[in-house]
Each structure stands twice: as C-alpha cells, then as structure tokens.
Design brief:
Elements (H helix, E strand, L loop, with lengths): L18 E8 L3 E2 L6 E15 L2 E5 L3 E5 L5 E17 L1 H15 L5 H7 L2 E3 L6 H14 L7 H35 L1 H7 L7 H8 L3 H12 L3 H19 L4 H8 L4 H12 L3 H15 L6 H11 L7 H7 L4 H12 L3 H16 L7 H7 L5 H12 L3 H8 L4
Antiparallel strand pairs: 1-6, 2-6, 3-4, 3-5, 3-6, 5-7
Helix pairs in contact: 3-4, 6-7, 9-10, 12-14, 13-14
Length: 402
C-alpha cells in the first residue's frame, strides 16, 4: 500500500455500523488517515515500526496495537512485508456498554485512559485469545443470514477484546517494573535495610532473580562482593551516627544491623583503622576548630526520638521543634530508617519494652506506661505487630531471674 503525502481529514469508516474487520498488507511506510473510530491492529507477519502519538513501537508477529479516535498513527518503517488484521469499531458504543457493568463494580479507570497509557502489547505465541476473538468477529460479520442478537454478540466480542488488551497492558507494565527493580532498586533496598539480616537468597526472593545474577550485578557496578558492599554501607551509616548523634555502641548496633557492640567495634577498626572512640574525638576536635554545625536534621530527629520515647511525643510537636513540616519529618525518617514518625517511635518503644520484660518483677502494665504508651491495649497491639507475640507471652518465654 502506498502512503499519501499528508493526513486526510478525520472520517468514519463505519457509516453507522458497529465494527468492521479487514486483512491488510503493508510493503512500505504509509501515513494512516485520522479516524473518528477506534482501531485494533493485530500483526500476523512481518517486522517494522508503528508510530502512535509520536512514539514509535517495534512491530513483530503477535503485536496488538490500539489506536483511539482522533489519535495520529503511522506505519513508519517496514523491514519485511507486514500482514495484519484491522478491526475498526465504534468506540462510544463499546464504552457505553462497558459502563453499565463497570459502574456496578466500582471501576473508575476508563478504557480511554488505559489504552492511551499503553497502546501496544506483545502477545505470547501461545496466547490464542486475540486470534479467537478476531476470528469470531469475522465470522459474525461475514454471515449471510440474519443471526439473532447480531449486534449483542459483536458488542460482547469487542468488549472482550478491549478487556483482554487492558489486562495484557497491566501485566506487561508490572513485569517491566519488576524487571527494572531487579537491577535498579537493589542498592537502594540494601541501603535502607542494612540493619536487617540480609542475604543473597533473601534478595533473590524479593527481586525475582537468582543469587548469582544479583552477586554479579553488584560486583559489576560497585567492584565489591555482596558481603563487602553490605559492610561498606553499614560503615558509611556508622560514620554518620558517630558524627551526628551521641548513640552508644549498643544503640548503634541495633540500628545498623551489627550483632552487638563488640561486632561493630571490630568491623569499624578493620575498615577505618582506628577505634570508634578515637575517631569520634578527632572529629569533635575538627568540629570545634571549624565550628561545623550539624546539618543533617534527620540524625538529630532520630536522636531526639530515641532519647525521649517515653514522653508524650507526636509528629506535629516534633516537627515544630525542628522547624519542619510533618510531611518533611516523615520524608526524612522514611529515607533514613524507612519508617514514618509513628512507626519509628513504636519500634523504639517496643525494643525498650523487650528489655524491660526480661525483668521478672516488672508487670506488663508498668512497662507499657514506662515506655510511653497511654493504653495497655495500644502497647500490646504494637508489640504483637513487631515481635510476633503478645508481651505476656514474650515475658513468660524469655524473662530470667535477676
């Protein structure tokens, strides 16, 4: 088919019909007229490129393209003759039929929005659903006898085709995000979760690729093995906590994923070449000489919450104390500890309660008030959420005589 030199005026091919179906072949690039009707292009054979709204998409067999009314589309490249099924349909009639049922389901996204966002999907060769629907449409339209419920059946088939298209776009968009996360989000996840017991096997299950793939990827972009990288990230965070907080080694080991204060000391000395206490003294001297102000508000906030968890803390007053908004407060905490204000406060309180529950003579009620909870029920609910068991069970299982 030869293309025209310019777009023709928008027009309707249907002339009052619900839909039409044709088998076409393109051997060279062509400019497609702008239509008032919606169209599906099902590529059966050939390769090339198809433009929808100024975005080019590769063509290959089993490609399904949706072009909506008044959208601009062109066959911009033909590498080998492209044979395709063209389904033209009355978009308004089909979406009106869909609304009857989608409103009952509470569906808020329209076909228009879904198809505009993802106009092209690539079918698996074994997926025969689209072939079945287009073949059924063709048989219905070519029937020489007047079949009962003709338009009802056509509407049903077109709705099924549109729904199948939208489901495919969502699935492929999800797979694309997952694939992207496998490689671009791993480092961020390790940074945010370095206080946990991270392993390659755990990352493998989270990011849906093998441990060896993750290990190779991390080595390629950082030059470090997984264990060395995790150690570097923890050391980096340790330096910040040393410089910007007055946490003890025990407290830092809790935040940063070390076994205990002895472990953090050994790792720090091996990597930095000095004791933590010596490093802190040197930094404090430099800070006094240069009059360096602690600019990292997030560490000051963390320190404040950790020191005052037993008080009647709330996000609004804490944010006001540091001259920031509540959203900014939560943003800072989410970045550093991947928890908002209330989540982090509860974690600190529950961790302290876990220590107090080991003391036999202290009751659960006393401990709830001591760590800052006004209600025993709130304490029990948060303890169960974070520790996986009620505080009474924890106390019976782990408390020792002192």
């Amino acid at each position: 088919m030869k293309g025209n030199d310019k777009k023709s005026a928008a027009y309707s091919q249907l002339n009052g019909k619900l839909c039409s179906i044709e088998l076409k072949t393109s051997t060279s690039p062509r400019m497609t007229p702008i239509h008032q009707d919606a169209r599906f292009f099902l590529i059966k054979e050939g390769t090339g490129k198809f433009m929808v709204q100024n975005t080019a998409y590769p063509l290959r067999p089993h490609t399904l393209i949706s072009v909506l009314p008044w959208q601009i589309s062109d066959m911009v490249q033909v590498d080998s003759p492209i044979r395709y099924v063209l389904v033209t349909y009355n978009y308004d009639a089909i979406t009106q039929a869909v609304k009857i049922f989608s409103n009952l389901e509470g569906q808020t996204e329209s076909f228009l929005t879904a198809m505009e966002n993802h106009p092209v999907v690539y079918l698996e060769p074994e997926d025969r659903t689209v072939d079945f629907l287009t073949e059924s449409l063709s048989r219905e339209l070519e029937s020489e006898i007047s079949l009962p419920f003709h338009n009802v059946n056509l509407t049903s088939l077109l709705v099924q085709l549109a729904v199948h298209f939208i489901r495919l776009t969502r699935r492929q968009a999800s797979e694309s995000r997952k694939s992207k996360n496998d490689y671009t989000e791993i480092l961020r996840y390790i940074y945010l979760h370095c206080n946990e017991k991270l392993t390659l096997d755990k990352l493998s299950s989270l990011f849906h690729c093998s441990p060896s793939v993750i290990s190779t990827y991390l080595n390629q972009i950082t030059g470090l093995s997984f264990s060395a990288l995790l150690s570097e990230i923890r050391i980096g965070k340790t330096l910040n906590f040393i410089m910007y907080t007055d946490f003890t080694l025990k407290e830092m080991s809790e935040f940063l994923g070390y076994v205990d204060e002895s472990h953090i000391s050994k790792v720090f000395a091996a990597r930095i070449g000095s004791k933590i206490s010596d490093y802190k003294k040197v930094y404090q001297k430099v800070q006094n000489i240069c009059r360096i102000e602690e600019s990292r508000t997030v560490y000051t906030v963390i320190n404040y919450i950790y020191r005052n968890y037993a008080e009647d803390l709330n996000a609004k007053d804490t944010a006001h104390k540091f001259g920031i908004s509540v959203p900014r407060l939560n943003e800072l905490l989410l970045y550093q500890v991947e928890q908002n204000f209330s989540e982090f406060l509860n974690q600190v309180r529950v961790n302290r309660a876990s220590e107090l529950l080991l003391i036999p003579h202290k009751t659960v009620l006393e401990i709830a008030y001591e760590v800052g909870y006004k209600s025993p029920k709130t304490f029990s609910r948060n303890f169960l959420k974070l520790k996986g068991m009620p505080p009474n069970t924890f106390k019976q299982k782990y408390s020792v005589a002192l």
